[in-house]
Amino acid sequence: MQTLPNPPRGNGTLPLSKRLKLDTHNAHQRVDEAIMALSPFASLEGYRRFLQVQYWFQQQTTALYHQPSLNDWLERLSERCRYAAVVQDCQDLNLDDATLKPSPLAPPPIPSHAAAVGWLYVSEGSNLGAAFLLKYADQLGLSVNFGARHLAPSDSGRGLHWRRFTAQLDALPLSAKQATEALHGARDAFQYVKDLTAIFAPL
Which Pfam families does the entry link to (predicted)? Predict the structure, then answer.
């Protein structure tokens, strides 16, 4: 029997993690630019602005990390949550509850578990890219033990931590509709972070 060549793989047949990366590339780049516009490593004042954005974002995603049904989908998800580390960092730098709460912007709704997966993809990806941020934070006297705990790698290392997460994403038996919901969720998460950074934009 003649072996037919495999058809070209469109975005719809890529693993979910690859689809999320491709679909949100531009949004991710815009968020990176918005974060750096805060001058987060020029001074402790700039870093506090960055930390506030991190706090508000992690505040919105922490419930997802602890949702039992999502932990059924993604093994040991709750152990990945960095909200407690962000809270400690804020305490280190004297950011009090009056400054931080409540979040100044209500996040867009997360209508489904699949959409939540997109938000978690953005949250987990931010830790993957935190290695160079931690180096800059060190120049301000911050470390994984003071002020920059939420930038710390996991015990297994950033690369392996991320690969395990994306492997779980790619193994989810999502329908085409659910995959689309995950993409929308990731876009919403990136836009929410960008909107939070805009709070600190000069008038």
Answer: Heme_oxygenase (PF01126)
Residue 7 located in a structural domain:
no
The pTM score is: 0.91
- Residues recorded for the chain: 203
> Which residue has 């602890």 as its token pair?
66
Query: DSSP assignment, residue 9?
Result: -
Q: Which structural domain range is residue 173 located in?
A: 23-198
For the chain, the straight-line distance linking the first and the last C-alpha, in angstroms and rounded, comes to 70
Q: Are the C-beta atoms of 68 and 87 separated by less than 8 Å?
A: no
Query: What is the rounded average pLDDT of the residues 27-55?
Result: 96
User: Which pLDDT score, from 0 to 100, does residue 71 have?
Assistant: 97
Asked if residue 155 has pLDDT above 90, the reply is no
CA geometry: angle at 84 spanning 81 and 86, to 5°?
95
* Total number of domains in the chain: 1
